[in-house]
What does this fold into?
Amino acid sequence: MKILVTGSNGMVGTELKKHLDNAFFFKHFNYPDLDVTNRHRTQEIIEYHRPDVIIHLAAKTDVDWCEYNPEECFAVNVEGARNVCEGAQKVKALLVFPSTFYVYPGDKESPYDERYDKVIPDKIIGTYSKSKWIGEVVVSEFKNMRHLIVRFGSLFGGGEKDKKFVSKVLRMVSSGVKEIRMIDNRFIQPSSVKDTARNLLSLIEKGGEGVFNMVGHGTASYFEYAKAVLEFAGVKDVKVISINSKDFKETAPRAFNLSAVNGRLGEMGLDRMRDWRLALKEYIEEIKSQFIE
It folds into this structure.
């Protein structure tokens, strides 16, 4: 199987390369070697390599940045996806489009199940989420092209590539702070990038197509998440203080209760995502020496 990966230097791409090196013939590209907003160059590369599968990871994923830069966000996340789709269509490749569970509005108590819960465009919160939803629509409506859309959870992992929640908390600790304020009334689903990459490749190998949730098991408030990070890192002299979201100034709006189940993965017997606390503990054991003496 020949696999081409765009945006290969990010968290998911870096993890995928560890497995693809050993199991598949693949080519991986990152900006500026492949700028997916350049239609001609994108299709030229795809047609030259003629992959069986394209994993299209190239995207703008910083939620706050996207809110400040909507035009560039949509150019990469939507038009970039369209350009990659055109290439995939020409070489008859499966197009794998990582999306996000942020396309769900987070306005109900029960978890979102992709088999039954439809995305309601008018309820999508924030520029990033809207761009990924429109990208999903572009991919799913592209004629004569097989597709696999995978909605990831709130990813952690990546080691040196980690610029998300876990590394931010550990950097605050290493800077010497003694108190960290975290929201206690907004819930997410922390998900291991290691589990996600492995599960994604398994799903591709088993012929998965259509839309799948792929999230870690269990939910947490940001307050609970931060406390777990400090617990697993062995930090006892930093206090996590709970605050309400209304007392926290944010750049981008966010949903309040995001949780999902891996409905279709479970049906196929392919749900290999772990409980977020178990996966987080393993990850912090691997990286804590980078932040804490």
User: Anything to note?
Assistant: The first helix runs from residue 11 to 23. The first strand starts at residue 2 and ends at 6.
